[in-house]
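Sequence and structure are kept together here, with a separate record for every protein. A complete record is shown below as an example:
=====
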Amino acid sequence: MKAVAVPQFKGIPQVMELPKPQVKPGTILVRVAAAGINPFDWKLIDGILDGKMPHNFPMVLGVDGAGTVEAIGEGVTHFKQGDKIYGQFIHSPIGEGSYAEYVVVPEKAAISHAPTTISLVEAAAMPTAGMTALQLLERLGLKHEQTLLLVGATGGVGSFIVQLAHMQGIYVIATVSDEDGAERMKKLGAKETINYKKVSVEKEIKANYPSGVEGLIDLVSAGPVFKTMTSLVKVGGAALTTAFVADKEALKARNITGGNFETQGTPASLDTLADAVDSGALKVPVGMVISMEEVPEAIEASRKLKGKGKTVIKIG
């Protein structure tokens, strides 16, 4: 089978011909239709889980995927042959990922039945970005009509946050870098946008919201900038970062809850997202659909935070 893998940590991704995996007890064999690209994928290349989990090389990349169940192993009860599924295919050992024509996934992984009203290519864009957005908002705990400053809004996670927050009646102020981004965010439900390349986010918020915003979600900033952004949150508000740069003591001093955030992939979160999509309330923000051969370039773009919406690899 064709797969995109690296021969060692820090290697350059390349299309390889590898053996088709075999189903084992408690697992399902999936014929992959598409895989979603996430920043975590290149972090795996860099060895973020080295020493924490076993790895196989060549290491087939990819966490997010969608496809069709081709075979089920002994003891599998949740899925049957022919089911359309999606989710996070990552499991131990690392290196049996979704950037492949076939993958074997434990039944107990963060996978579930795919939404029925969209294609599997679109479904592959959802798992990590969608669950991250859903869980960030749950943890932030904002109420109807409260204000959320969303920094790094135009990527995959941000595009889901804007929609899910809008569904809850939360007033979203999204940071963008150009007019295209501003227009896209407004269409998804943002009430305001701030072009950080033209004006200071800090000055804009202080001028328009002198008492501060109720919540902050920052998907991109380094430590010093996140600290500046948290100064725009009301005392007693909430602030979350996915970049793991929160200063817990600084937040505590201003009675701000939150801090560093990590997604927990669950079938329940996937089902919530699928229901929102199938009801028409949630649109999947696919930015680009690429081939396996284009993955090295797309990984590099992700490293440089140049993604617009979500990049998906069409495989089958």
